[in-house]
Amino acid sequence: MEKSHIQHFQNTLKQYTKLDSKEFGTLLSIFKLKKYKNNDHIINPTEENNSIFFIISGLLRYYYLTEDGKEWNRAFLSERMISTSFPKNFDWINPYGIQAIEDTIILVADFSDYQLLFDDNPMIERLQRRLVESILIKKIDRERSFLQSSANMRYKDFVEQFPHIFQRITQYHLASYLGVTEASLSRLASKVD
Which fold has domain 3-148? Predict the structure, then answer.
């Protein structure tokens, strides 16, 4: 693992909590560096997700797959973002897939290994709580957007909030994320431009 990868990881974690060097070293020891090519699946929708990820470079999409095979993107994650799953025994978590949509390098750890650190490392447990809070806030904001905003406003908001991702995703993926068809997305884009 390159020193720059470790530094990016450490700097990102500081947004959530302050880990001393021993705590950070303990946390880092459970992570492995993995590389994925564009379109590789990190987790298929039919597989159980029990991981925590830190994206060093590249772009991932999280998506749901309906019974009839339709995909609905729920999130995009790019450089220096962290994503965590919930423990396997949370039966109410719907399965979702994670796919690289660019060549991607991540740090990944098994969530159960991560959980084992909580009792002896309260700051790592605090990190998890703050990660979950961050995910919940994003989820609530996305839900509010679908309930209160038009497709046009959701498109504008995405372009403004995620310009670094907007330029890197296909119309298909963006339409799926916004809950519109590709044809509708083209009309929305032409109104904004």
Answer: Jelly Rolls (2.60.120)
